[in-house]
Amino acid sequence: MANDDGAIKVEPLTLHIGAEISGVDLARPMSDATRRAVHAAFLKWKVVFFRDQNLDHRAHIDFARQIGEPTIGHAVFGHVDGFPEVYSVAKFRTAQAHRSARMQRPWTGWHTDITAAINPPMASILRGVTIPPYGGDTLWTNLGAAYNGLSETMRGIVDGLRGVHRFEPPRGAARDAAYDESIQKRAMETEHPIVRVHPETGERQLFVSPSFLKSIVGLAPRESELMLEMLWEQVVRPEYTVRFKWRAGDVAMWDNRSTAHLAPTDIFESDHDRQLYRITLVGDVPVGVDGRQSTSLRGEPILAVEHELAAAG
Fold first, then answer.
1. pLDDT tens digits, one per residue of 194-253
2. 277 membership: H or E segment, kind and range
3. What are the E-state strand segments in 46-158?
């Protein structure tokens, strides 16, 4: 039985980003009207939350396919056995191996998913399964609001800049063989515009994923460092963010073209477990204000899961 009337309720959580959507059962197929209403809220609020859905892997995948084309669970770190579309976001996982070695700054850990790829995912859909009674919140920020918050002069400067994004261990981190091997198997490095034009809304986004953006093209190293730190500080300003307190069964879906997010680090000081699962959807190649597309420096595009599996043989 389908969700048939599109009469969802959208409750904004902050001025710039985040809304809870009710009136839809994600375990059932959405009608065209419901899908359009969900998509409109997704574009407007950048990240939307659905409470108490209690999906399993199959229902999660079925919902994701109504929104776009799922990729392999994680282009670098693999997938859940038997469900190649699904990536396990556990309390301890390979991607967290270097967290204690990071220099902690206000933007540390913030990222947009897999911007080292020529075509970063369009969206990510994360569902909570095992949630601690307190702690473990996730934060998102609105990259369009961050761009608009710059001075007119600075917007004019960054509109013409491009930056290099790549996967690599954090600076100063101890080497980890398994982590390094995963990265080398799917090495990716891409030159993206610093300001991306959203392909659906036309809004300009400050596309400066702190975990992946390493340098600005054409600037001296110190110039690049200072510019990036200013931009990263801008995107994590509290007024552009939303903080979500998870419950088991909740689903978050965010526009990876217009947001960055921060996974929690407080859970590593907790005795409580935390288990979520994520699906990402195939994205397009970013385009800058000048109309130039991103340029791949190393690696292959992220394909739909069926094509990834076929290519893997």
1. 999 999 999 999 999 999 999 999 999 999 999 999 999 999 999 999 999 999 999 999
2. strand 275-281
3. 47-50, 87-90, 123-130, 138-142
Give the active site residues: 111, 113, 261, 278
Rounded to whole angstroms, the Cα distance separating 14 from 34 reads 23
Domain assignment present for 175: yes
Q: Is 2 part of a structural domain of the chain? A: no
The neighbouring-strand residues paired with 206 are 195
Range(s) of the domain holding residue 272: 9-312
What CA–CA distance (Å, rounded) separates 236 from 143? 9
pTM value surpassing 0.90: yes
10 in Cβ contact with 21 (< 8 Å)? yes
Q: What is the CATH classification number for the domain harbouring 155?
A: 3.60.130.10
Three-class SS state of 124: strand
Name the residue among 237, 231, 196 with its Cα closest to residue 17: 237
Residue with tokens 């891409």: 190
Q: Which of 26, 24, 23 is nearest to 62 (CA)?
A: 26
In Å, the largest CA–CA distance within the chain is 59
Quote the CA–CA distance of 112 and 202 in Å, as a whole number: 19
Task: Provide the domain count of the chain.
Answer: 1
In a domain, 1, yes or no: no
DSSP 157: H
